[in-house]
């Protein structure tokens, strides 16, 4: 896979990348949108780096939400498969983030994704370890003949490579079974089905590699017995894949995204061609001389017996091979059943461990709650003790304050007595001053009454003068008002004269118009009367003609009747 580098703004591309990550890992229980995951993959090919991608996954607030974390793992799986090779290498350094994903949802399993997340993280760890140990394989396990041949140059190394490849295939098988086991009829399984898409593609790619490498190993070692364990394991994986692909082919959503591979019912023959041995060829019969035909009969019978013998041998060989394949198939089914039982036992133990962990967690939470309650009560006791001590200190302060107030009260009483004595003396001196001011007031009152009388006389004189001035001013104002009114009346009269002239002209124009209209109507009436008279004359002539015609026809009928 290759993409051309597009000359776009790096900052803008990173901003869009963050939006694609956010939308691909939203909280809706649906599959990650392919266009958003594809945009992340294209980014790794455009810039040959996935650093910003991992930074985006780390900064998104998805941990703690089961659905978002599971969708993030699906997206990561697709990115390290289809992204630039640097994305696969840089993903090998993100093990801590994957572990954090597994831990973040350990205590939340409301929608059944917690177990899936932990197993998905384990599978991704195994995949990344395999690519780290075998860097010649790319993320998609695209089949390349030279890689399969290179892997078995050293038989021991080839055996180890095939074993690691089959271990990864077993993990895929276990995880897909867990996904199917977690389907819920009452909820939308689209998000869970989305995890099967890369598993189908990856398992088939591994299957093709394992097939090619095992065939090459058989050709190179010439020791089929040494590879019997690998063959048995390969056959078991073949039947497991058939079942896996059959179950996937029944999921409409999955088949709308990818084409599910179809494997033959029986495993391919790793030691030779897949087709059965050919039928024995029939040997040609030599022609006898024409004159003597009798000696040819024994040769022909011998040939028929030889052919029948070879046919029986072939049928026996076929029967033996069929029985051998049936035994191998039964062994493989038995081994597959054992693997299934082992997986179910592991799953049961895993569920039991999870239950014990949940119970332990509940006990620890209850213990922490009890310890927290005890600490809270101890804090309350300390707070009450501190409050009591503060209250005692406040009471002591109040006692000291009361004593101080009592002393201040005594001082105030003493000062009040002294002030009363001094005030008595002050009252006597004030009384003397009052008498002095009283005599002064009486003198001023006499002076005030005299001045008031003079003021009243002056006011009378002022009013008379004011009245005279007001009467003169009123006369002037009335004259100005009358002049203004006369001017307004003149203006109104001029307007009325203009209006009268305009009305007179309008009346004359209207009369002329009416006279013309009356004359026109008279002419129209005369013309109408003329037309009526003409019409009357024409109708009278027509009626006369019709009467004459009627009388004539009547006369004719009477003549005929007579």
TrEMBL record:
InterPro entries linked to this entry: ANTH_dom (IPR011417), ENTH (IPR013809), ENTH_VHS (IPR008942), Sla2_fam (IPR030224)
One GO MF term attached to the UniProt entry: clathrin adaptor activity
Coiled coil region boundaries: 307-538
Membrane-crossing residue ranges in chain numbering: none
Chain intervals with Low complexity compositional bias: 287-298
Keyword Coiled coil in record: yes
GO terms, biological process: actin filament organization; clathrin coat assembly; endocytosis
Pfam families for the chain: ANTH (PF07651)
Assigned GO CC terms: actin cortical patch; clathrin-coated vesicle
Region annotation (Disordered) ranges: 265-303
CDD domains, per database record: ANTH_N_Sla2p (cd17007)
Recorded superkingdom: Eukaryota
Keywords: Coiled coil
Segments forming domain ENTH: 9-138
Name of protein: Sla2 Src-like adaptor 2
């Amino acid at each position: 896979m290759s993409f051309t580098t597009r000359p776009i703004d790096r900052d803008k591309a990173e901003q869009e990348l963050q939006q694609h990550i956010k939308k691909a890992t939203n909280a809706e229980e649906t599959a990650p949108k392919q266009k958003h995951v594809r945009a992340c993959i294209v980014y790794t090919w455009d810039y040959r780096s996935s650093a910003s991608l991992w930074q985006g996954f780390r900064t998104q607030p998805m941990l703690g939400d089961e659905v978002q974390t599971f969708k993030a793992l699906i997206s990561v799986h697709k990115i390290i498969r289809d992204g630039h090779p640097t994305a696969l290498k840089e993903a090998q350094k993100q093990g801590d983030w994957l572990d954090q994903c597994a831990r973040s949802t350990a205590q939340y399993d409301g929608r059944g994704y917690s177990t899936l997340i932990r197993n998905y993280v384990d599978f991704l760890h195994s995949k990344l370890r395999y690519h780290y140990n075998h860097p010649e394989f790319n993320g998609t396990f695209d089949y390349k003949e030279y890689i399969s041949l290179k892997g078995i140059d050293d038989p021991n190394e080839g055996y180890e490579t095939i074993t690691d490849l089959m271990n990864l295939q077993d993990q895929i098988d276990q995880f897909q079974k867990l996904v199917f086991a977690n389907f819920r009829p009452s909820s939308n399984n689209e998000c869970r089905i989305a995890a099967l898409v890369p598993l189908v593609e990856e398992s088939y790619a591994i299957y093709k590699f394992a097939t090619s490498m095992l065939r090459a190993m058989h050709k190179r070692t010439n020791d089929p017995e040494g590879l019997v364990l690998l063959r048995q394991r390969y056959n078991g994986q073949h039947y497991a894949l058939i079942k896996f692909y059959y179950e996937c082919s029944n999921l409409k959503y999955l088949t709308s995204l990818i084409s599910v591979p179809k494997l033959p019912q029986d495993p391919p023959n790793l030691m030779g061609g897949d087709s059965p041995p050919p039928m024995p060829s029939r040997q040609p019969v030599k022609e006898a001389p024409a004159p003597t035909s009798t000696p040819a009969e024994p040769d022909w019978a011998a040939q028929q017996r030889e052919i029948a013998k070879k046919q029986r041998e072939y049928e026996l060989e076929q029967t033996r091979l069929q029985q051998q394949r049936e035994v191998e198939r039964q062994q493989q089914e038995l081994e597959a059943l054992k693997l299934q039982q082992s997986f179910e036992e592991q799953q049961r133990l895993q569920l039991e461990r999870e239950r014990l962990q949940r119970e332990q967690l509940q006990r620890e939470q209850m213990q922490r709650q009890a310890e927290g309650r005890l600490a809270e009560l101890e804090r309350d006791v300390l707070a009450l003790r501190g409050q009591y001590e503060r209250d005692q200190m406040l009471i002591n302060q109040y006692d000291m304050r009361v004593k101080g107030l009592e002393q201040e009260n005594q001082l105030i009483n003493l000062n009040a007595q002294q002030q009363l004595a001094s005030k008595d003396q002050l009252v006597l001196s004030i009384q003397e001053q009052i008498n002095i001011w009283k005599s002064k007031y009486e003198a001023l009152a006499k002076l005030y009454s005299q001045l008031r009388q003079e003021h009243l006389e002056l006011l009378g004189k002022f009013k008379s003068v004011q009245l005279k001035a007001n009467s003169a001013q009123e006369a002037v104002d009335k004259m100005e008002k009358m002049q203004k009114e006369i001017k307004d009346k003149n203006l109104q009269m001029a307007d009325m004269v203009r209006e009268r002239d305009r009305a007179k002209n309008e009346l004359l124009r209207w009369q002329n118009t009416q006279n013309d209209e009356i004359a026109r109507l008279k002419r129209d009436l005369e013309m109408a009367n003329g037309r009526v008279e003409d019409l009357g004359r024409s109708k009278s002539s027509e009626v006369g003609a019709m009467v004459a015609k009627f009388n004539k026809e009547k006369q004719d009928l009477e003549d005929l009747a007579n």
